[in-house]
């Protein structure tokens, strides 16, 4: 195989769930049938890697130092809601019940996959929550085993610093991922959140 083609195949294998065969199929497809798409993909990737960073406050993706939501003066700075992903954050926003700010972990604790406190930015969360303005941290990680374990760990960590912590109420089904729960249920769970 041509060196450049081999390199492309190796690069495509970095994508989650892509094995050697499908990587090769993708590479052939791009070079044979969609060179324009291939060029677009390469430009988009380059641009995203150069310009997209993590928000200094909430850790979500942004092209600025601080994302639009964290910069929004209308949000209630005394509330900080911890979610696993930007998709979960979007779900909570859809409920229109929450006007505080967020911290996006970009994952969850998962010892079996080697994902520990460092990988989900807990030091950054701790610094954020202890800014002296935040009065309540609302844990809105998923109601899966890993999400619950993550909520428990964060709750202990923040309470040890004297911070007030609450957890979404159990309207969300056991094993439930926020992304797939309807907005009404999440709204209820947010309103009924309780101290941990
Ligand atoms: Zn932000």
Condensed summary:
The chain has helices at residues 3-12, 20-33, 35-51, 68-71, 86-95, 122-129, 145-159, 183-191, and strands at 53-54, 61-62, 76-83, 100-104, 136-139, 165-167, 194-195. With 196 residues, the protein is an alpha/beta fold. Bound molecules: zinc ion.
Detailed description of the structure:
- The protein has 196 residues and is α/β, with parallel strands linked by helices.
- It has 2 domains: 3-51, RecR Domain 1 (Helicase, Ruva Protein, domain 3), CATH 1.10.8.420; 58-167, Dna Topoisomerase Vi A Subunit, Chain: A, domain 2 (3-Layer(aba) Sandwich).
- Helix content is 44%, strand content 13%.
- The protein has helices spanning 3-12, 20-33, 35-51, 68-71, 86-95, 122-129, 145-159, 183-191; strands at residues 53-54, 61-62, 76-83, 100-104, 136-139, 165-167, 194-195.
- It has a 5-stranded mixed beta sheet. A two-stranded antiparallel ribbon has the order 1-2.
- Strand 5, helix 7 and strand 6 form a beta-alpha-beta unit.
- Helix 1 (3-12) packs across helix 2, helix 2 (20-33) packs across helix 3 (35-51) and helix 5 crosses helix 8 (183-191).
- The radius of gyration is 20 Å and the shape is elongated.
Average pLDDT score: 92
Q: How many distinct beta strands?
A: 7
Percent in helix: 40-55%
Q: What is the radius of gyration?
A: 20 Å
Query: What ligands are attached or bound here?
Result: zinc ion
CATH class of the largest domain: Alpha Beta
**Biggest sheet character:** 5 strands, mixed
Whole-number tally of structural domains: 2
Total number of helices: 8
How much of the sequence is in beta strands?
5-15%
CATH architecture of the largest domain: 3-Layer(aba) Sandwich
Protein name: Recombination protein RecR
GO biological process, one term: DNA repair
Zinc finger (C4-type): 55-70
Domain Toprim: 78-173
């Amino acid at each position: 195989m041509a060196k450049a083609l081999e390199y492309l195949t190796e690069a495509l294998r970095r994508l989650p769930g892509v094995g050697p065969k499908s990587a090769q199929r993708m590479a052939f497809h791009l070079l044979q049938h969609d060179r324009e798409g291939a060029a677009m993909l390469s430009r988009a990737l380059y641009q995203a890697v150069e310009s997209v960073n993590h928000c200094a406050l909430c850790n979500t993706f942004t092209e600025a130092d601080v994302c639009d939501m964290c910069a929004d003066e209308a949000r209630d700075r005394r509330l900080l809601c911890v979610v696993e992903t930007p998709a979960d954050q979007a779900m909570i926003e859809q409920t229109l019940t929450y006007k505080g700010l967020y911290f996006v972990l970009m994952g969850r604790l998962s010892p079996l996959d080697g994902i520990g406190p460092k990988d989900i930015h807990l030091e950054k969360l701790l610094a954020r929550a202890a800014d002296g303005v935040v009065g309540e941290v609302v844990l809105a990680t998923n109601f899966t085993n890993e999400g619950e374990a993550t909520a428990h760990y964060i709750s202990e960590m923040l309470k040890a610093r004297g911070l007030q912590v609450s957890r979404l109420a159990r309207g969300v089904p056991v094993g439930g991922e926020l992304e797939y729960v309807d907005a009404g249920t999440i709204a209820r769970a947010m309103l009924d959140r309780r101290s941990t």
